[in-house]
Design brief:
- Helix content is 59%, strand content 1%.
- Helix 18 (337-342) links the parallel strand 1 and strand 2.
- The chain has a two-stranded parallel ribbon with strand order 1-2.
- By secondary structure, the chain is an all-alpha fold.
- The chain is built from 38 helices and two strands.
- Among the domains are: 51-259, no CATH class; 349-422, no CATH class; 624-674, no CATH class; 678-750, no CATH class.
- Residues 1-55 are annotated as: Disordered.
- InterPro entries: CENP-I.
- This is CENPI protein.
- Belongs to the CENP-I/CTF3 family.
Length: 751
C-alpha cells in the first residue's frame, strides 16, 4: 500500500495515491468521478458552488500544513477564516481522506492553542474513510508530549468514535503496546481500555498485561472498563485469567462519541435526501448504496481501498492453504463456503461487527466455531446500537422508525439463522418494553420476544410478562393475537433448546443436569400459566371471537405435546376459561382444534403413565394427580356434550356445564339435553344440514332426529371426509364403541 509521507517531511498535499479512494474532486461532487459527465458537471451552478468550497478547503489545509510557530487565535483573521472554513465544510459534507493527515498533525503538534486544537479535532468528521497512516502519524505526536492532556483525551475519544472508518488496522494493531502504556493515566484509562477492547486479538493477550490490569484493579477497584478488558482477555486465554469476574454489565464504557456521531448522522441524512444514489461510500463495499445511519452502514463488510485495488492479487494469494501459516484472512476476501472451511482458524473479523449480521459465511462460522470473543464483541456492539437507536427510548429518533425496523428485522433473521437469542436483545427488551406503546415496530419487537433466552421467572415477570400484560389487555384484537403467536414461538424455541442440549436417553446426563432441567420446567410452566391467564381474560374482553380462539388453541397444540415431542416432563391443561369457550364455540375449526388437543393430551398422559409403571429408571419428575384429574373432568364434559348428550348432568368440573333440570326447563329450550352433540352443536349443525340434504334430497323438513343408529355412523364418516381430523382421532380414542370398531376395521384391513 502506498502511503503519504509524514507532515514532518516535505510533501505535496492533497495527492491521491489510491486509484479507488475518494479524492477531493469526487468529494466535491458528492460521488465518484464520471468522465462522461465531467463536462456537464463543470458547467452546473451546483458544481461551481462545490468547486468554491473545495478551493476554500484546499487553502485552509495548505495554511495549517505550513504553520511552523505557535499561533494565537486572537486578532488573527487568517487563522479564524481557515478554521471556520474547515468547521463548516466538515459539518456540512465531511472531510475527504486527504485532510486528516494535515489536521491531525497540526492539532497534536502543539503549534496552536488548545482552543484551536479542540475545534480542529471536533471538526474531524469523515466523508468516507480515514487513512490508517494519518492516524499512525498522529499517534506519534503522543510520544513527544507536545499537546496537553485534554487534547490527548479528546483525540482518543475521536479515535474510538471513528474506529470503524479507518481503512486499515494492521499498523494500529502493531501499536497495541503503545496504547497499553497509557493505562497508568487515570483520566485516559477508561478510553484507552475502550480502544484496546476494539483492537484486542488473541495474540494481544500476554501475562504481563494481565498482571498490569490486575494491579490497576487492585489500585482503582473494580472499574467497568477494566472488567471489560479482563473479560475479553479471559475469553481468549482462560488459562491465563484465573480470577472470577462479576457478571455481564449492560454498559462497560463511557460514551465517547462527543459531537462526531451527530455530525456523521446529519451528513448521511443530508446525502440521502439530496440523492438516493451515487454518494461517497460510507464504510461499505463498492456495491453498497445505503445511506442510512451508522448501524445500517455497518451491516456491510468494510473493504478498504487498498483491498479493492488488489482484490485479484489477494484472491490468488488466498489459494495458498493458510492453515499452516500464522496469518489472518480478512473476511471481505471470503467468497465461498469452501474458502471458509479452509481458513476457518485464520479469519479476522471486521471491526464493524454489524456486518456479521448480513454475511451468511460469518454466521456459519459462528455456528461452527463457538468463539466467545466474537459473541462478546457482537453483543457489545448490538446492545449499544439498540440503546442509541430505539425510537421510543431516545428523544428525536421517531423520524428513523423505518430504519430501526429494518435493523430489528435483520437482528431477528440472524437469531433465526443461529437458532438462539442474543443476550443484548434480551436486555434491550427488558428495558424498553416498559416504555413501549405497542405500536412502534410492533411485529419486529414481538418477533424478538420469541427469541428471549431462558431466564428466571422473577426476572421475566417484572420485565416481560407485566409490561406485555398491560399492553395486551388495552390493545386491539390483532395485537392480542400477535402477542399469543410470539409467546407460542418463544415456547417452541425454549423446547427446541431443551431437545438440543439435553439427551433424554442418558441417565447420567439427566441426573447431572437436575438443576437445569428443574429450572426449565419451572420457567416453561410459568409461561404457560401466564398465557392461560391472559387468554382467559382476553376471551371475556373480546366476547370469545373465533380469530382469537384460534391463536390460543394454537399455543396449546404445542403445550399438549411437550412430553412426547420435546421430552419435557411437563403437561399443563388449559384453564376452564379457554376450554369451555372452545367446546361451545360456534365455529367448527375451533371445536376440531380442541378435539385434536385433547387427543394429544391423552396420548402424552398415557405414555407418561406407562413410563411410571414400567419403572425402568427413577423418574425425577412425575405428573401430579391434579393433571390427570383435570383431564378426566374435561373428557367427561366433551363426551357428554358431543356424544352422550349428558353434559348438563355429568360435567363435574367446578366451572363446568352442570345444571339442574329445573333450571334448564326454565330456558324453554327444546331438547336441551342434545343441544351440544355432534348433530345439534352450533358448530356442527351446518354439516348436519348438508348431510340430510345429500341423504334425503326430497325431504325439505330437515329432520335431525333421522340421524341415529346406522345413519349416525354414516354421519360420522361424512364429518371425517370434511377434514375434521381432530374430531375423528378424539372420538376414536375416547369413545369405547367407536374405538373398538376402528380397531377391528384396522385388523380386517391388515388380514
Amino acid at each position: 500500500m502506498q502511503r503519504r509521507q509524514s507532515s514532518k517531511t516535505p510533501k505535496q498535499p492533497l495527492q491521491v495515491h489510491h486509484k479507488n479512494q475518494t479524492d477531493l474532486s469526487a468529494w466535491r461532487k458528492g460521488g465518484r468521478i464520471d468522465p462522461e459527465k465531467s463536462v456537464q458537471n463543470h458547467q452546473s451552478p451546483n458544481y461551481q458552488k462545490n468547486d468554491s468550497k473545495q478551493d476554500s478547503l484546499e487553502q485552509a489545509l495548505r495554511y495549517f500544513e505550513k504553520v511552523q510557530d505557535r499561533v494565537s487565535l486572537k486578532k488573527n483573521d487568517v487563522l479564524q477564516k481557515h478554521l471556520t472554513t474547515v468547521e463548516s465544510i466538515a459539518l456540512q459534507r465531511g472531510l475527504p481522506p486527504e485532510g486528516f493527515d494535515v489536521l491531525l498533525n497540526v492539532a497534536l503538534s502543539g503549534k496552536l492553542a488548545d482552543t484551536v486544537n479542540t475545534r480542529l479535532l471536533k471538526s474531524l468528521v469523515p466523508a468516507s474513510v480515514i487513512p490508517e497512516n494519518s492516524v499512525v502519524s498522529s499517534v506519534s505526536w503522543l510520544c513527544v508530549s507536545k499537546c496537553s492532556g485534554n487534547i490527548q483525551l479528546l483525540f482518543l475519544r475521536w479515535l474510538i468514535t471513528v474506529f470503524d472508518f479507518i481503512d486499515h488496522k494492521e499498523q494500529l494493531h502493531a501499536l497495541y503496546g503503545f496504547f497499553f502504556s497509557f493505562l497508568q493515566d487515570e483520566k485516559m484509562c477508561p478510553y484507552v481500555c475502550h480502544l484496546l477492547y476494539l483492537l484486542t486479538r488473541k495474540e494481544s493477550v500476554k501475562p504481563f498485561r494481565i498482571r498490569r490490569l490486575l494491579d490497576l484493579q487492585a489500585k482503582m477497584g473494580m472499574q467497568s472498563h477494566l472488567q471489560a478488558l479482563l473479560s475479553l482477555y479471559k475469553l481468549f486465554c482462560p488459562e491465563l485469567v484465573t480470577i472470577t469476574l462479576p457478571g455481564k454489565k449492560k454498559t462497560y464504557f463511557k460514551n465517547s462519541e462527543g459531537p462526531w456521531k451527530a455530525a456523521i448522522n446529519a451528513i448521511r441524512r443530508r446525502n440521502q435526501e439530496n440523492s438516493p444514489v451515487s454518494q461517497p461510500l460510507f464504510l461499505g463495499t463498492a456495491q453498497t448504496q445505503s445511506r442510512k445511519r451508522k448501524w445500517n452502514t455497518q451491516l456491510n463488510i468494510p473493504a478498504s481501498s487498498a483491498n479493492r485495488n488488489n482484490l485479484e492479487e489477494d484472491r490468488e494469494k488466498n489459494r495458498v492453504d493458510l492453515y499452516s501459516m500464522n496469518e489472518y484472512l480478512p473476511v471481505e476476501q471470503l467468497q465461498t463456503f469452501s474458502q471458509l472451511l479452509q481458513n476457518i482458524h485464520h479469519l479476522e473479523f471486521p471491526s464493524q461487527m454489524g456486518s456479521v449480521l448480513t454475511n451468511p459465511l460469518l454466521l456459519h462460522y459462528m455456528n461452527c466455531i463457538k468463539d466467545e470473543s466474537v459473541y462478546l464483541r457482537l453483543y457489545y456492539w448490538m446492545g449499544q446500537t439498540l440503546r442509541e437507536e430505539c425510537t421510543w427510548c431516545v428523544a428525536d429518533n421517531n423520524q428513523y422508525e423505518e430504519e430501526f425496523k429494518d435493523f430489528l428485522e435483520t437482528v431477528y433473521k440472524t437469531e433465526c439463522f443461529l437458532q438462539e437469542g442474543f443476550s443484548s436483545c434480551e436486555e434491550f427488551l427488558y428495558k424498553s418494553l416498559l416504555l413501549w406503546d405497542g405500536c412502534s415496530c410492533q411485529s419486529q419487537i414481538l418477533r424478538l420476544v420469541s427469541w428471549i433466552p431462558l431466564s428466571s421467572f422473577s426476572e421475566m415477570k417484572s420485565h416481560l410478562y407485566d409490561p406485555l400484560a398491560q399492553l395486551f389487555f388495552t390493545s386491539s384484537l390483532y395485537f392480542k393475537c400477535s402477542v399469543l403467536e410470539s409467546l407460542k414461538e418463544l415456547l417452541q424455541n425454549w423446547l427446541n433448546w431443551h431437545v438440543i442440549h439435553l439427551d433424554p436417553e442418558s441417565d447420567s446426563q439427566v441426573h447431572s443436569l437436575n438443576t437445569t432441567l428443574s429450572g426449565l420446567v419451572n420457567v416453561v410452566a410459568e409461561l404457560i400459566h401466564f398465557v392461560g391467564w391472559i387468554s382467559t381474560v382476553a376471551l371475556r374482553l373480546e366476547n370469545n371471537p373465533t380469530f382469537l380462539l384460534y391463536f390460543i388453541l394454537d399455543f396449546y397444540e404445542t403445550v399438549c405435546d411437550m412430553y412426547l415431542r420435546y421430552n419435557l416432563p411437563l403437561l399443563i391443561m388449559p384453564p376452564a376459561g379457554v376450554f369451555y369457550p372452545a367446546l361451545l364455540s360456534m365455529d367448527s375449526v375451533s371445536l376440531n382444534q380442541l378435539c385434536y388437543i385433547m387427543y394429544r393430551y391423552r396420548t402424552n398422559l398415557v405414555a407418561a403413565k406407562e413410563n411410571e409403571l414400567s419403572k425402568k429408571r427413577i423418574l425425577q419428575f412425575k405428573f401430579s394427580s391434579q393433571t390427570y384429574q383435570e383431564y378426566n373432568q374435561y373428557i367427561i364434559a366433551m363426551v357428554g356434550c358431543l356424544w352422550t348428550s349428558s353434559a348438563f348432568q355429568k360435567d363435574i368440573h367446578p366451572q363446568g356445564l352442570r345444571m339442574d333440570d329445573e333450571l334448564l326447563k326454565k330456558t324453554t329450550a327444546q331438547e336441551f339435553k342434545t343441544s351440544f352433540n355432534i348433530v345439534y352443536h352450533p358448530a356442527m349443525m351446518g354439516y348436519a344440514v348438508l348431510f340430510l340434504q345429500q341423504a334425503w334430497p326430497d325431504d325439505t323438513t330437515l329432520n335431525f332426529s333421522l340421524i341415529k343408529g346406522k345413519k349416525w355412523d354414516w354421519y360420522l364418516e361424512y364429518l371425517y371426509m370434511q377434514g375434521l381430523k381432530g374430531l375423528k382421532v378424539f372420538i376414536e380414542s375416547s369413545i369405547n364403541r367407536v374405538s373398538q370398531a376402528s380397531h377391528s376395521k384396522a385388523e380386517n384391513v391388515q388380514v
